Amino acid sequence: MSSLSNSLQLKHGLALCCPHSSSLTRPHPSSSIGFRSFHRNFVVASSFSNDNREFVIVGGGNAAGYAARTFVENGMADGRLCIVSKEAYAPYERPALTKGYLFPLDKKPVRLPSFHTCVGSGGERQTPEWYKEKGIEMIYEDPVTSIDTEKQTLTTNSGKLLKYGSLIIATGCTASRFPEKIGGNIPGVHYIRDVADADSLISSLEKAKKVVIIGGGYIGMEVAAATVGWKLDTTVIFPENQLLRRLFTPSLAQRYEELYKENGVKFLKGVSIKNLEAGSDGRVAAVKLGDGSIVEADTTIIGIGAKPTASPFEVVGLNTTVGGIQVDGLFRTSIPGIFAVGDVAAFPLKMYDRVARVEHVDHARRSAQHCVKALLSAQTHMYDYLPYFYSRVFEYEGSPRKVWWQFYGDNVGETFEIGNFDPKIATFWIDSGKLKGVLLESGSAEEFELLPELARNQPSIDKTQLRKASSVEEALEIAKASLLNEQKA
Ligand SMILES: Cc1cc2nc3c(=O)[nH]c(=O)nc-3n(C[C@H](O)[C@H](O)[C@H](O)COP(=O)(O)OP(=O)(O)OC[C@H]3O[C@@H](n4cnc5c(N)ncnc54)[C@H](O)[C@@H]3O)c2cc1C
């Protein structure tokens, strides 16, 4: 990575900051992910009048909203930035769709414009008017369908030809679907990725009596908590033997499962689906399981994961292991001037020395900000992300118990569970004597603030002492003391 010390060489869009140059040819640095070494012409434009856009972001989601904010903060948005979006709305905080958006209609559900980015991180609410005021060109409901990397042009579904100087791909993920032949497209079968999906689900919930949720991950858990609020008969079906298997320990998963059961949710675990069946009205009527048994349903929500939306940008270089578009620690793809951020980016997870794709909002926000800063300034430090996942459910008015957990780090090694879930509980992951990951349910603000410190610094932990901790507070004190001792030493 020797070339990374030369900040001038690193800035794909740097020359674009000089409005008087008409074009610039310069070499692209080599990098650890094998950039091709060739020259590239940058077309410079200081306004949209000649239809050349200096900076184009494709995808108007979470990452796009935070990227736009960073362009504005750097004085580089006005007349220079264009966002091309498939959706009809300005960027919003997507996690809200399975949380406040699905609250029962009499329990003050949230609706746009209340959750436009960047409210999720305490920032300004960027409504469509905000983009106008900041001179950002927004193209709605017109997805990009092709790219010509030589001519530096994009074509949209409606046939618009957009020229770009620098391009940021922020196309996120697409919900995985059941194939049509097993009923994946029957009316009443829902997937949830955007506002239109959530609205369609709500219109089904208004008439629903029996809901079947397929999938025991984030989406399944969050939608089930919502349908409890709607007082609907809810069954969650999934092939694994526990909830949220990618993160939770079996014991933690069991605690959450019990909580859902106390709220009336039924679970069918370790079960495969044969197909979804339509009734005489053409709407979904039942879910047929692998063993031939039938679960009645008038509404089904499928939450079986998501796939990175790399199309039509495959040409910039994909990662074949984790999927998505391969980038380096400054979010540069293999083609000069083209970057990728958020869910779609396969990036070096420096802390754990591996390439990862992270489908979580914190990474979408941070990667977008890091990428734009690197693009516009001399910032050359590599992205150094600490994985952070969270969920919040049962938060509607009148709910007997709210659930809010946060996880930081890596879920590797031996696990230690402290607390009895009333409502607090913590799980510590310890590998080679060091704390690698920590999850906390219902912590205080100070306790939640401690988690990233612990996961980032990975203090050595006395496992015997931790095992003996009689409360979450005591366990966190033990971890904090180890951290402080190591910091003093
Ligand atoms: C229902 C739901 C709940 C979630 N809850 C949580 C949570 O609790 N905690 C958490 O950490 N994360 C959560 N996530 C994940 C989080 O929302 C994502 O990680 C985040 O939105 C990723 O941001 P992004 O900008 O990369 O992608 P997105 O926000 O998905 O935005 C991508 C945008 O690109 C658009 N697009 C795609 N292709 C094109 C194209 N060719 N042309 C133009 N536009 C295109 C899409 O329509 C979309 O608007 C949730 C996700 C969903 C769907």
TrEMBL record:
Monodehydroascorbate reductase 3-like C-terminal domain residues: 386-466
Gene3D superfamilies linked: 3.30.390.30, FAD/NAD(P)-binding domain
Keyword NAD: yes
Cytoplasm is among the record's keywords: no
GO-annotated cellular components: cytoplasm
Cofactor: FAD
EC number of this enzyme: 1.6.5.4
Keywords: FAD, Flavoprotein, NAD, Oxidoreductase, Redox-active center
GO MF entry, a single one: monodehydroascorbate reductase (NADH) activity
Ranges of residues in domain FAD/NAD(P)-binding: 55-367
Homology family: Belongs to the FAD-dependent oxidoreductase family.
Name of this chain's protein: monodehydroascorbate reductase (NADH)
The organism's taxonomic lineage, starting at the top: Eukaryota, Viridiplantae, Streptophyta, Embryophyta, Tracheophyta
Underlying gene: LOC111289860
